[in-house]
Structures are given as structure tokens and as C-alpha cells.
Amino acid sequence: MRKKTSGKKTLSIKLKLTLWFTSFMVLTAALCLGLILLVSGRVAENEAFNILSLTARANLTEVSLEDGTLTISPDFQFYSNDVYFLIYNKNGAVLSGQAPPSFSPDAPLENGVSKFVSGTDGSADYYVLDFWIPSGWDDGLWLRGVLRSPDGRQMTGNIFTLFAIVLPFLILLAAAGGWLIARRALAPISRIADAAESISRGQDLSLRTGIPEGRDEVGRLAGSFDRMFARLEQSFEAEKQFTSDASHELRTPTAVILAQCSYAKKHGSTVEDYREAISVIHRQAEKMSLLISRLLDITRLDLGTQKLKRESADLSEMARILCEEQDTGARGISLETRIQDGVTGLFDPFLISRVIINLLDNARKYGRENGHIRLSLAAEEQEAVLTVEDDGIGIPPEEQDRIWQRFYQVNSSREGGSGLGLGLSMVRQIVDLHGGSISVESRPGEGSRFIVRLPL
Ligand code: ADP
Q1: Which of 113, 188, 207, 217 is the most buried (most CB within 10 A)?
Q2: Is the CB–ligand 1 distance for residue 409 below 6 Å?
Q3: What are the tens digits of pLDDT across the range 49-81?
């Protein structure tokens, strides 16, 4: 169960929708009931007058007054289709026929007029239709048809009983339908809320709503939430990675510094001893500082906070300047360049210079003493192709896939402890961000060639 945030009682949306559906249903049913009662009353009345008129007209020719004598044919029916017939003389006295109980035969006679007459004891009402059958100039008969009106109260009662039976079912159906529809429509929102809640409790960051991103509002909301969750997960992962990488990699230089300090304190006696200890500490501190800045760079790239700042850059110019700045002479290594002029494109100049520096750095580190490094740059079709080649120790084929992994070093002893194993993973990340590719061709003992392709 979800906790309520305020003390104020609030109805859930599901309940509100269900209540709305149900009240709407009850209102509609009440309206229908009223309409049915109204219409059925009218229909019954019309029907009654119709029957009365037809039956009376059929009897009209079966009765006559001939020479002052009442003649009734055998086809005359005193009671037919629930209609009672009475025959009156011209003065309004009943000559023949039987009136239904509670009907007063004295009701005034009106030729051809149908009317509604109340019974004497209030138990029934009657529809009445009279016809004047003339005989000669001043004589004649009255024929009166009397039809007991259908019991209005009973009919209303029947309709009410029907509604009393059907209505509870209808209400139940409306409530259940409303509840189900509301639950279905709101299910995605519940899923979003559950995912958000579980993420905020820090349980599982890989959780997603799993709702396909549709065009409707809920689909769009779910899509936004999923993207936000993905971003959160990426941030947490990058932070976790940074913390574990930093704590793991800083342990060795920290241990070396501490060991050097306690050695110098215990055994250091000459200036030479202290100078040596300080230079070891200095080297380790430099390594730590480099490591931290590299890790921060990588974390920023992972997080996406270090965004590509693409600008129109002259790659040829950049490569030329960087080659001039690089100190390759230290191990007697010479640098040859073959740079095509005017290779320009939209790059992040700072990040691309990191690529070139890293590759040149590696070529120098793993290059042969007094060897050669060759850097070439050319535009091929829609790509800038940069290659950095050395004639150093090379990389065994089985290691060539792994050198791109973070902290991976082929054999740290052959590197003389100078590397961190972070350079190539960062290079690859930068090239990927630019939509390019990087590959290596290498033979142990002969040298390596790194090829970077960047779309122009
Ligand atoms: P590092 O800081 O160790 O140089 P990198 O990520 O730059 O880290 O390189 C990963 C590994 O790939 C290195 O440890 C090294 O063994 C190998 N490597 C990289 N460049 C070269 C190269 N030009 N020649 C031979 N091996 C190389």
C-alpha cells in the first residue's frame, strides 16, 4: 500500500472515475424510467381509445329504433374487447346493457366525443365514447361504449419492479466496467510510479517502465521517465566506476610514497638519501595527479558532461603543431611526418589533440631506441585518416583486442611502470564520440600502426 502524503482524505483517481461512471449510469437509468412511464401512459391511452372506437363502430349498425321499438340484432355484443355497451333512449334513460361496477351510467351523453370518466369509488377509471343513432326527425338512441382504463398504478408498479431487478445489475456492471477501464488506463502510471519509487529507494537502477513510447500522453511520459532513469543509471555507474578505479589505482603510488617516507625517516642520513626518497615521491605524486586527471576526463566523457565542442578545425595544422611539440628525441627516436594540407572538418580540437598526443606518446614509449615514428594524415573520400606508426616492441595478436580496455596493459613490466593503461581507452572513446573508428596493426618485435578514421 502506498502512503498518503497528507492527512487530507483524497479519493484515488480510479475510485473517482468509477463513482462518476456509476452516478452517470444511475442518472441515465432514472431518466429512462421517467421517459418510459411518460410514453407508455400515452401509448396505453391511445390504444384504449382506438379499441373503444373500433368496437363501438362495429356495434352501431346492430341496433336501431324502429317505430319507437328498440331492435337489437343477434350480432350485437354487449361486451366485446373489454368494452361494455349501454343503450340509452333520447332522454338518457338506460334501455339495455350492463355498466361495469363503479361506473355511473348517468354521465352526460355527447355524440362522438371520447372522454375520461372517474369511477364512483375511485377503484377504476373509464374511457367512454357515445354515439347518437337517429331514427326519424326527433327520435333516436344513444349507444355508449365503456372501457375500463388499464390500471395505471399496476403498470407503473410493473415498470418499477423491472427496474428494481435490472438496476442493481446495471449499477454493478457500470461500477465494475468503470473500475476496470480506469485501472487499465492508469496502469502505466502505476508502473511509472513503482519504477520511480524503487529507483529512489536505490534498489535497482536498471529498472524501466517497459511501456512502449507511444504518441499518447502516458507513452510520452513513460519515455521521458525511461530516459531520465537511463541518465541516472549512467551517472551512478560512472561515479561508481570512478570511485573504484581511483581507489584501486591510487593504492600503489600511495603505498610507495608511504614506504619511501618511513624509509627516509628511519634510515635516511645523508642529503643524497633524502633527495632520492623525494624524487621517488615526486614521481609517484606526478603519476597520481596524471591518473586523477585522466580518470576525471574519462568519467566526464562517460557521463556526457564533457560534451563535444565541435568547431571547424584544421586537422593538418593541429597535427603539425603537436608533432613539433612532442619530445621524441629522448630515446634517439626520430619523428617523420607526412601531412596532407587542408584536412579540415568539424571536430572538438581539444579532444582530437588528446588522441594525437596519446598515440605519439605510446609510439615513443613502446618504440625502439633510435627508431622511427611516422605520422601521416590524409583525406580519403569523406574521412580524415590519421596513422601513427612505430618500429618498437609491437603487440601480440591475442592482446590487440584488449588494449582498448580501461587499465589494461599488455605487460606492465615491459612498459617500465610508466603507463596507466588508460590512454587507449580514452582515445577510443573520443573517436567513437566523433563517429569515427580506430584500429591497430601490429607484429611483436616489428612495430605497431594505429589507424584513426574520422568522418569529415
Ligand atoms: P598505457 O598508459 O599503459 O600506455 P594505453 O591504454 O595507452 O596505456 O595502452 C594500453 C597498452 O597497449 C599498453 O600498456 C601497451 O602494452 C600497449 N600499447 C599501446 N600502444 C602501443 C604501441 N605503440 N606499441 C606497443 N604496445 C602498445
Answers
A1: 188
A2: yes
A3: 899 999 999 888 898 888 888 888 899 999 988
